[in-house]
Amino acid sequence: MQTCLVPDITREQAATDLDNAERAAARVQKQSRWLAWYSGTFAAGFAALTLMLGLVEPAWLRAVMSAVLWLPLVAGMVLRAGRRPTTARGAGRRVVPGWVGSGVLFAVALFVGVPTQQGNLAYWLPAAAVVALPLAVVAWREARR
Amino acid sequence: MTSTGHPRHLLDDLLTHGVRFSIMATLDGVDRAEFALVRDSVEISDSVLSKQVATLETAGYVDVDKGRVGRMPRTWLRLTDTGRAALARHVAALQAIAGRSRQ
Questions:
Q1: Containing domain of residue A102, as a range?
Q2: Whole-structure pTM value
């Protein structure tokens, strides 16, 4: 039966416990930073997809190239994400706005550009950068955590 | 300072065990972590981690989820709200105790 309700601990023990726990936690935290490269890769993927859909001619080649870029990218990244051993606390809350932002901007860029700006580099280049921006910001923030 | 005012009174009995404290600390900054990652980070064996996690789970400090990634079985560990609060109190007490040594 436990009789000592108040554990005794020296200052040195307390400091050692804190240091050991901090070291162990840092190792796990390091493994949780994968969302930075994950979001950055998707930001680049969104930009490349936007450029392809706006600049590549003819339409069949555009469709083939977009599928060849996007489908393996999504499949590979989803698979890799599922295999990560940990996820940073609150990651979903931080990442979702980036996905929604890039998704909405992508839709707007296509909605405006496809009917009237096909092949116009002056439109599609900035559009690709703007589409990638929300996810790029997420990647930058995750890398700095 | 009275005896009841000493920060050691805020220490959590379960977490005065260094391994259990480290396990909890590794889970604090993440949503969940795989069993193997926690084992390697705390540098203990499977059996030691299993035993300590069972103790923490019984206390309501840690949740254990079992699942699969592809065909591979996986065990995930997650800190509960109760566990997070207990860890915060314990860390504050340890910092208070350790902080006095620097004065």
A1: 33-144
A2: 0.78
